[in-house]
Amino acid sequence: MGIPPDVVDRLLKENEDHECPGSPEVCVRLSAIANLPTRFGDYQVVAFWNNLDRKEHAAFVRGNVVDAENVAVRIHSECLTGDAIGSLRCDCRDQLIESLERIGKMESGIVIYLRQEGRGIGFTNKIKAYRLQDAGYDTVEANQILGFRPDERDYGIAAHMLGTLGVRSIRILTNNPDKVEDLRRHGVEITGRIPVQVPPNGYNRAYLATKRGKMGHLLDFEQDDDLAAGSPANGGSPPSA
């Protein structure tokens, strides 16, 4: 069972003319809800509008999360090359599928899909960063050369989405401690962290090592073994991605 029909009607009614008082930096409005059967289980898809980037962000909801505590939540940032095309340069698609599968087996949970491509630098700049990585720079260095921070994402919109759904507290599926701190800064109560780690491949192993070594992501794979397994002799690529 998902969010009950009467609660769906209430949420939609509340958000019809929703205006955030005091002209805040971010105002988020729930726009539409529908059932969404998936290969990972039955979900409801919720569309959100906001006044900050005016992009349409989404929440994929399993069960009734309204007024619930300790809800399992994955906040996933858009990655067209990984999520849609299956790029091996990153672990984005693997983490998204892992999260949908896990939450699809739970009584309730949410996968929030934020439209902030390339850690917030946009699609074109992400491809420019890929070109720099092809030349030997790591993912952090490539962003910095382009004039960006290693991670330009903000989770204020996600925090408002959770608030609009009435979620009281969450257990977050992430390896990124900065995401946890940013959500807390935006008022989200986090009661626990669930790791979402997938094995590296021959193309993303150095990328993952950079996330761990330079960005503080909580990854516990054995680097030496994984580097050996993904070496060029074993079908991988040089460690420049």
Summary tags:
10 helices; alpha/beta; 241 residues; Rossmann fold; 20% strand
Number of domains: 2
Say which CATH homologous superfamily of the largest domain is assigned: GTP cyclohydrolase II
What kind of sheet is the major sheet?
A: 7 strands, mixed
Silhouette: globular
One letter per element, helices H and strands E, the order comes to HEEEEHHEHHHHEHEHH
CATH topology label of the largest domain: Rossmann fold
* N- to C-terminal distance: 43 Å
Q: Nearest-angstrom radius of gyration?
A: 19 Å
Instruction: Report the sheet-strand fraction.
Output: 15-25%
- By DSSP (H or I, 4+ residues per run), the number of helices equals 10
| Number of E-type strands | 7
Instruction: Quickly give the structural class.
Output: alpha/beta
CATH architecture type of the largest domain: 3-Layer(aba) Sandwich
Structure write-up:
Strand 2 and strand 3 form a beta hairpin. The protein has 241 residues and is an alpha/beta fold. The C terminus is likely disordered. The longest helix is centred in the middle third of the chain and has 13 residues. It has 2 domains: 158 residues, GTP cyclohydrolase II (Rossmann fold); 41 residues, no CATH class. Helices cover 37% and strands 20% of the residues. Helix 5 crosses helix 6. The protein is built from 10 helices and 7 strands. It has a 7-stranded mixed sheet, sandwiched between helices.
Helices and strands in order, then pairings?
Elements: H1 5-15, E1 28-38, E2 41-50, E3 57-62, E4 71-77, H2 80-84, H3 92-104, E5 109-114, H4 117-120, H5 123-134, H6 139-145, H7 156-164, E6 170-173, H8 177-185, E7 190-194, H9 205-215, H10 223-229
Parallel strand pairs: 4-5, 4-6, 6-7
Antiparallel strand pairs: 1-2, 2-3, 3-5
Helix pairs in contact: 5-6
